[in-house]
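In response to the reviewer comment on reproducibility (Comment 2.3), we provide here a single inverse folding case reported in full, input and output, so that an independent group could reproduce the run without further information from us. The structure tokens appear first.
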């Protein structure tokens, strides 16, 4: 392909700039191709906001957080929110505009960097005749088809550092510290970050918990060696059934992304249930901002270069993936087959149990 488009869709993620840089430099250096950067994901494709990416523009951005192209969650061309009158939004099918802009800009291929939402749109674009290459992105690490996504290592590094900091103040005050982490419906960030930070309790969406084991862990630590406890809770973890107050709050929390606050609920339950002073911290978007770690810079560069090779050589309908440490293209269809969750018998869960971590289930 001589003209390759590139866009970043969905929530941002450390490493996006590394992918943009690698796609652009590989396409230019190895194939003499032109790379067109599309602004704000599929929104920019619908609205025709794009520009040629120069070598200069992508130079020196590998270590920068965010995305130089901008991103958007609301750019699905088939379900595009349009303001029809003041304050009234209507969802319309504007896919014809996106397809027209692909033609107008002469894009022979389009590299879409994003999570499950972006991959769904990418496979629809493919069906509509656009030559698509996907690059999986999310701090949640839940895209099927790939062992790992860039951004995840940075997020768990932030979680680990946060737990280290919370532990010293928890220890000084003999408190319970609850830290709520991201991950949407998957527990990868809580599991990996919690293990790395040495959390005493880890609560995941994939392992239903009850209060007794959690309270028991707090009592055990207070009475024995350490007089503080660190609880790492995934935003998507479900509160135990049967507790009327929390069950009521939990019902409203159907989308963990929008109505979070499980950290506060868990903290309140622990303080009431154990009598020990408890505080809650929500790490939120700190996990998504800032510079990518070494591992994420390396993965982003590998993914970006591989995506440019696919785009330039005409290998379409694929997503680049990392499997057993090797980067290779897999069918986009594999990436849109649900979400990758933590198996409750995952080896890291077993290792954490062996070092005494409580998952609240026994
Ligand atoms: O998918 C990435 C993620 O950061 C999730 O972990 C989180 O639930 C969600 O996005 C937050 O989305 P927003 O930035 O739209 O609040």
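Designed residues, in position order:
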């Amino acid at each position: 392909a001589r003209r390759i488009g590139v866009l970043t869709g969905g929530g941002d993620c450390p490493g996006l700039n590394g992918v943009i840089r690698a796609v652009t430099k590989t396409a230019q250096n190895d194939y003499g191709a032109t790379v067109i950067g599309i602004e704000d994901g599929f929104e920019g494709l619908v609205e025709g906001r794009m520009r040629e990416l120069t070598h200069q523009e992508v130079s020196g951005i590998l270590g920068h957080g965010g995305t130089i192209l901008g991103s958007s969650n609301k750019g699905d061309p088939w379900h595009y929110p349009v303001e029809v009158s003041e304050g009234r939004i209507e969802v319309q099918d504007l896919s014809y505009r996106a397809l027209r802009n692909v033609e107008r800009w002469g894009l022979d291929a389009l590299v879409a960097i994003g999570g499950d939402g972006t991959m769904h749109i990418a496979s629809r674009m493919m069906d509509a005749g656009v030559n698509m290459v996907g690059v999986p992105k999310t701090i949640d690490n839940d895209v099927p088809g790939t062992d790992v996504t860039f951004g995840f290592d940075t997020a768990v590094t932030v979680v680990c550092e946060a737990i280290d900091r919370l532990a010293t103040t928890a220890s000084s005050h003999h408190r319970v510290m609850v830290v709520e982490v991201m991950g949407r419906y998957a527990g990868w960030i809580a599991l990996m970050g919690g293990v790395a930070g040495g959390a005493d309790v880890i609560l995941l969406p994939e392992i239903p918990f009850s209060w007794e084991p959690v309270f028991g862990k707090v009592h055990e630590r207070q009475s024995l060696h350490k007089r503080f406890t660190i609880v790492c809770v995934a935003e998507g973890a479900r509160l135990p059934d049967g507790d009327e107050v929390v069950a009521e709050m939990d019902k409203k929390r159907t989308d963990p992304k929008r109505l979070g606050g499980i950290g506060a609920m868990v903290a309140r339950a622990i303080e009431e249930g154990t009598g020990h002073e408890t505080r809650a911290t929500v790490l939120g978007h700190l996990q998504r901002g800032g510079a990518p770690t070494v591992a994420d810079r390396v993965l982003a560069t590998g993914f970006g270069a591989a995506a440019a090779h696919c785009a330039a050589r005409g290998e379409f309908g694929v997503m680049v993936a990392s499997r057993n440490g090797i980067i290779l293209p897999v069918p986009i269809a594999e990436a849109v087959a649900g979400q990758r969750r933590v198996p409750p018998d995952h080896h890291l869960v077993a290792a954490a149990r062996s070092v005494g971590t409580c998952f609240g289930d026994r």
